[in-house]
Structures are given as structure tokens and as C-alpha cells.
Write a structure and sequence with these properties.
about 250 residues; alpha/beta; about 15% helix; globular
Length: about 250
């Protein structure tokens, strides 16, 4: 008997999607710190990165492709990455790396994984040949994982019969730079995509050391603001807020 479909918001942009018996993990951050950022939420459950069928990485920023977290994973695991970033993972010992450009797909068990466009700036020399992408997961359900992106032309076309959109609503600090969705723009994305369900991600997990004491609002308010804006701009979409570590059944 196939396990029920389920989404676990591990924290930040790390999501475990269990679909049709396939376990897919996105943008793994599985430790308590990334550089000057400290984890503000509970540590990931020990089993979240076990028995995976594939790893999906949207881009090479350190809060999405965290090297110490990657070292914890099975290096024979299929890894789906943006075009131009395959060598980064091959150099780290991953043996089954597939590069995908927007519109390109690969099959992982019963799930078709298709790369989508994303609009997100490069920050380092490491990324000069690599772009950011999102992922569309298609099986008995259709799920869009945005990774890090701003609104873009063609986003509406991704929303055909979409069951779930995993939408970033913040970042890792008290303010956002270009190439991100804030709560209002994430709600505009929900209006374009029109999914049956939206779960906000990329919030409440990482924050600069010592700042939570003085500026705690960005750790808590973005998903509530996203839900309120979505109620105005995309009332057809249900919003389900998961705290880092929580799971939701899609049955």
C-alpha cells in the first residue's frame, strides 16, 4: 500500500515532499547554523533525509545549497540542479547529478520533475554559469516549489490544475533584497497560480546571530501577512501555515 501524500516543512526552503511513495527533499539546510545565521526553529527530525529518492536544489546560494548539510546525504542519490551547477555537486562527490533548464523534465519513480523559470540574482563567482530554477512535481498531484524567485512572466501558465504551491514569503533577515517574494507579492503569485492549497516557506528558520531579541517580527509575521493578502487577492486558495518541522497530509 502506498504511503499517503504528505508535505513536511523542514524549515527555510527545505521541504520533504512524499508523493506516490516517492520522497523528494528540496534545498537542504539540516544544521543549526549557516555562516552568521542561526537556526531559530527546532532541529530537523533525524529521519527527514533518510530513504530519499532524489534531492532538488534550486540554486547555489549558501542557504539553499549548504555544504555541511549536503555532506550528510547519500552521495549516490539523484540530484536535480540548475544548468551550469552540475560540476559543483560532482566535485563534492555526488555521482548522479542531472542539470535541468526551465521546461526540462526527468522522472523520479511515479513523479515527473520539471524545472521552471525563477528570477533571482547571482551573488558570487561560483554562480556565474548557473541560474536559479523552481520545480514542478507532477504525479497524482501537481505541486510547485518556487525556490527563491520574484514574480515573472509565465508564472500563470504553471498553475494549470495545481494542487499545492510552496511559496517563499520572506528570507533570513530583517529585510529582503531583489529577487524575493514578500507576503504581498507571494499572494500575487498565488493569484497567478491559483492552487487549491498554498503553504508559505522560507520564513521563521534562519536569522542573524543576536538579532531575534531586537527584531523578532520577521520570524513570525510573514506567513500571517501572506494568509491575509491571499484572502484578498486569491480567495479561491486555501492557505495552510506550517511551523518548521510540521507536516500536512495532502489526502
Amino acid at each position: 500500500m502506498t504511503a499517503p501524500d504528505r508535505i513536511t516543512y523542514v524549515g527555510h526552503a527545505t521541504v520533504l515532499a512524499e508523493l506516490g511513495g516517492v520522497r523528494l527533499l528540496t534545498d537542504p539546510v539540516l544544521r543549526g547554523r549557516v555562516g552568521h545565521l542561526r537556526r531559530q526553529a527546532a532541529s530537523p527530525a533525524p529521519g527527514v533525509a533518510r530513504n530519499l529518492d532524489a534531492l532538488l536544489v534550486s540554486h547555489l546560494h549558501h542557504d539553499h545549497a549548504d555544504l555541511p548539510s549536503l555532506r550528510k546525504l547519500d552521495h549516490d542519490l539523484p540530484v536535480l540542479v540548475p544548468r551550469g551547477s552540475g560540476a559543483f555537486f560532482a566535485r563534492r562527490g555526488f555521482s548522479a547529478v542531472s542539470e535541468l533548464g526551465p521546461g526540462e523534465s526527468t522522472q523520479i519513480g511515479a513523479v515527473t520533475v520539471t524545472a521552471t523559470k525563477a528570477v533571482h540574482p547571482r551573488h558570487s563567482r561560483l554562480e556565474r554559469d548557473s541560474e536559479a530554477i523552481g520545480f514542478l512535481l507532477s504525479g497524482r498531484r501537481r505541486i510547485y516549489f518556487a525556490g527563491d524567485t520574484d514574480l515573472f512572466d509565465g508564472m500563470r501558465e504553471l498553475g494549470h490544475d495545481l494542487d499545492l504551491a510552496l511559496l517563499p514569503v520572506w528570507g533570513w533577515g530583517p529585510s529582503l533584497g531583489p529577487g524575493h517574494l514578500d507576503p504581498q507579492r507571494a499572494a500575487r503569485a498565488a493569484a497567478l497560480l491559483s492552487p487549491r492549497l498554498a503553504i508559505p516557506i522560507h520564513w521563521g528558520t534562519l536569522y542573524p546571530l543576536g538579532l531575534a531579541r531586537f527584531r523578532p517580527e520577521p520570524l513570525h509575521s510573514p506567513p500571517r501577512e501572506f494568509a491575509a493578502w491571499t484572502g484578498r487577492l486569491a480567495p479561491q486558495t486555501e492557505v495552510r501555515v506550517l511551523a518548521p518541522g510540521e507536516a500536512a497530509s495532502l489526502s
